[in-house]
């Protein structure tokens, strides 16, 4: 059956591209964030068959903002807005170039590591924010430190030098991490940094074991290398997901150790404050203080958004009608159907209110140039697992997010003790979860309430849940979205997604494909 579907797909693609509307498009260029580069690269690949050609250079958020301001690129991607001045006193603004911020995806900044015991990789490592802050300011320098053992409820790690891996380039990931340090652990961070505030360039002190790497991919490669034993670094969750590498379970304000799954990120970002002043240049940017301090047991504290710098000026020197159309259609797909891929790739999809606001920002391209086609845009028909029909403020993903297992509560567990010295304290024994089907522990609600759902002890992912995607009554047929993060069994996830997408293309084309075909027919009719 799969062979038949592939054959039908090939025929469908030939028909769809027999008369491509390539004249309507022009190649566009962007640069910036490596934090969001994984999902951006996938979206670029997805739209390529429709004649939409995009090149993207993951040079770091700082470089992305500079390139955009200097008219080197058509768009930029960054995790933080323009700061006015950077850490070195240089101008950090868009200058005279008109633009708008547009959220494109959510996610969590994760701490991935390599620590081996007897040649076996330690998993299920838990750390508090205080411990993380001391590791990255060189106050904790060995994996056998009592603070690390305490975070893991008595579990002991070997005597091994800690090697922090930080970004060498100007990085939005660094900015997000240091903003959290500055807000939550000022007495640790500020003496090390020498002043208050965030930085995009992590300060590496001479004489320490800290090493630098350019780009998230190089941080990840450094940690996962054969010489990486003892390392720990910060990257967007997608990087360890793709490498199948463990990440730290980070202690939240509710007293639970959690991973940055799409569920936990969605829960945390319900407390983000979004600038809703449409007259402000900072419209749609976020304040994350409430995210850091969320008391929901499921919330991952280092959750945030990535933004596109969208060129909105009618006289923008780089933009043409064809380039604006390329950017419009690319981001229409990315904000709509593309969000359904966020979870499996290690990100979290945007909620409906931000997708709608993103559509409003995107429309500014057709305002700048009325020749840009912006018809057939209905946000309620997007296949997005966060959507709740008729309610812009709700987030389905956050509503169905599982509670953390009892063994991940501070003072209990930890959930897995396959490496290191297992704790033998009464508290640890009390925190041991009961087995569910397949050997996964049962997730208990805070306070010892009835179990909620089976959760994988190594990944924090729910083993089974309702994956129904809410949609408006008048929506077109959409592909069901598998609500998993890809940490466990991601081969099956991608296989299921591939089959679902084949069926969707052949039997019930998604909104994006329908839009592209309609616009192609209109342009062919106009040419005739």
TrEMBL record:
The chain crosses the membrane at residues 493-516. Residues 19-335 form the PBP domain. Residues 411-467 have a biased composition (Low complexity). It comes from the Bacteria. It holds the Pfam family PBP_like_2. Coiled coil: none annotated. This is Phosphate ABC transporter substrate-binding protein. The keyword NADP does not apply. Keywords: Membrane, Signal, Transmembrane, Transmembrane helix. Residues 402-467 are annotated as: Disordered. Residues 1-23 form the signal peptide. Belongs to the PstS family. InterPro entries: PBP_domain, Phosphate-bind_PstS. The keyword Metal-binding does not apply.
